[in-house]
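Q: Joint fold for the lines below.
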Amino acid sequence: MRAALHAEWTKLRTIPEAAVFLLLTVVLTVALSVTAAALGAVDRVEASLLGVRLGQAVVAAWAIQLLAGEFGTGLASTTFIALPRRLTVLTAKAVLLLTGVLAAAVVSVTASVLAGRILIDDYPPLTDGPLRAAAGSVGYLLLIALLGLGAGAALRSAVGATSIVLGLLYLTPVIIGMFSDLETQHHIFRAMPGTAGLTVLSTVDMGTLPIQPLPGLVVAATWAFVTLGVGAAVFCARDV
Amino acid sequence: MALDGMTFTAAPGVVTGFVGPNGAGKSTTMRVLLGLDAADRGTATVGGRRYRDLPNPLTHLGALIDANALHPARSGRNHLLWLAHSQGIDAKRVDEVLDMTGLRTVARRRAGGYSLGMRQRLGISAALLGDPPALMLDEPFNGLDPEGIVWMRDLLRTLAAEGRAVLVSSHLMSELQDIAGHVVFVGRGRAIKEAAKDELTIRYGSLEAAYLELTRGEGALK
Amino acid sequence: MIRAEWHKLRTVRGWLGGLIAAFAVIIGLGVLAAFGVHTSCGQQEGEACPAPPIGPGGQAVQDRFAFVHQKLDGDGTLTAHIADFTGIITYPPPNHDELVPGLVPWAKAGLIIKDGTKPGSAYASVMLTGSHGVRMQHNYTEDKAGPTDARWLRITRSGNTIKGYASSDATRWAEIRSVDLPGLPRTVQIGFLVASPANVTAKPGPHGGSIVQARFTQATAVFDHVDRTGTWTYEKLGDDGGMTDWEKFHHNAGLDQHGGTLTISGSGDVAPAGNEAGATIAHTLTGMIVALIAVFVVAVLFITAEYRRDLIRTTFTAMPHRGRVLAAKAAVIGAVVFTGGLIAAAITVPLAVHLMRSGGNFVIPSSTATGVRVVVGSAALLALAAVLAYAVGALLRRGVAAVAVAVLLVVLPYILATTSILPSAAAGWLLRLTPAAAFAVQQALPSYPQVNMPYAPSDGYYPLPAWAGLLVLAGWASAALALAVARTRRADA
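A: Joint structure:
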């Protein structure tokens, strides 16, 4: 495991990909958060963390690229010759992915909250709800990273996996909008990772949400771990 | 079913030619042995153990399967560096193999810009990284210029002379002329015949003739 | 060259399959949406909703006002002075705890000639408004401003021509407009109208977007110096039978006549209906955003696959004018997506509208021209977005990055703007500047300055006109294509 981690770390630091994706995560997240904070909204905390909605796309894309990218270039066969225990490879990649995303998420969320404090009047103190929103955002981004890793491992096509995951995250509200029946709308809202998971950003009028933040994160986590399980099975079993 | 009864030996100190027409199952054999492809039935073992159970497998068996299996943005040296780290091998060894394969001068350039010949050399470097007692090279002559072919033959001969078992696949008998001490002919996923080079030259006159005679009608299978 | 590129696109089974799947998604989701729309009014499930009246122009309209009228045979005229115009607004912001005297901006009191008393029938009217001065309006959608300080109004009929005049001193009359109401019968109704639309405000919602609130209002106008005699009949036109507490306990709508002075109170509006009346034809094309992602994947792979497999060297060797090769590929992907999108949209819209209507839902009617614009425009949107994604692919040469960029440029702004995530002002700017501006082609209902509605992107109203939205997307696509050509000319294949 140590050797696998060392090897994957060397891979990561010898091409600019990881740095570009992580930098992009921070830049886009903070940029949208600051814009939203400057525009203002009823939920001050959610406005200051709005960038998470954008940052998740970069996180998912990196996670997918980290795994599916190897199949795209053909590097995967070299990796499996050097490290034939595939589950170890996947674990090593997951550890590095989570570490990187954790760092980027903590930086982005901290910067977003600080910007919110400066730009928004009456920004609430970082306790209870607001603290849950900030910490939950980091947790949500980690789950999206795992979802992306699983999708990349299961599908192997970076382009295909990216479009499916981004579609899953972003198109749910559109699909919900197609149904006029409130109950159906709430069912879909509760079932999908993007909508249910991102309730973690809300801090006011919690009663009107179709699902509360904690159960929402559980929904996102279920999606992430089921996808990762399927991905791991395909990753370990399928011929290269 | 791509393979059916592929049994042969590659002895230490000898270059074993692994020849047969395209699609005869040469690459598949190597890939199954390395655990890249799964066998429906049966086992593939290296020194009595499954490849995936070998600790630091590159120190037991060096393999070159696909010279293009690299990230184009990573430099050749860094490609070898992560491979070294995956086996707990010191970074010093990376520079040693780069010297052996003559890639020292281009090692810090993006591997994506390498010619196919340079990629083959990088693949050989990777196979030699763990200083393994056995080597398995799939079509190492592909993409080499005449000078490169001569260099590759010398290298393979030297590696065998150091006491390693060297298995080299090719669909062109001529590439293995002069260096293969032992030849395995394959067709339709089976080893048709294996024999010492001397035995073959005596019986068929030349390796080329042996190849044509033995692999007639043993083309692609499906 | 175009033939060669078409052959390439056609022969990769996954690409063609992806495109066909994308177009199937448009139809499939359109049909699903048709079944998903489910309206019921009243206590019982499945009870049909009253459909709004349809105006002479074919659009859904509001036609609810206090109508005091008498018969007019042939030509004629009506003049009156508005002595007083007041109103009441119930429980407005900020505290929603009082009844406030006042008129909403588009409260209306004036003279009207109308083709009978059926809601939706043709009319022309000259009126004083709450804060927009004197206007001449006819047939629900038309509006022309008159003087702001006039209190004397006159309306005349001569054949099919209705003229509206206004004056501040009853001696000098200014003609506001002369309008034609084709097919007007010999006998029409002439009289007074008083209407007061709901007081509508939008405030930001706690979970983004905006919450639209509408409050009951009532206007009262006193007309004197009426130059027509005879009996006036009061009618609460378009009344649904419901009454607010204000009407029950304070002051009901109606007519109060003392000598030549008529005091009329009323609520409602005579105006085009917004999309609160029901689903629009554009609703059936919601699935397009899903198809867009599949189209992006194919468009991006169409070029990045060539780089990955070094096919581009072969291509450039065979066709050395690189810029032209890129343009040819763009033309092929654009044309293929346009054709497929056109077929899919042309099937989806009528089919889904038919399904919705046969399911007992009211679908706001649109003119054929609007329908064609929505269908053809949506196909153009798909095609231009495909070219944009393709150009980004040619520029970046990385499949994942290109698809992600295309999604972030086109899909994300659309989602942020239309699903109540961003405040409407920010949403409006996203829909002006980003490629998502092109979704304006799907706006099925026009917005009217003479209707006080928060025309928000989340309700299907876009800040740019359809052609301008498409132009913004075309600008993005051609800029990306130009950059890609520049890069390809300079760089090695």
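Q: Anything notable?
A: Chains B and C do not touch (no CB pair under 8 Å). Residues 1-60+132-222 of chain B form a domain with the Rossmann fold fold (CATH 3.40.50.300).
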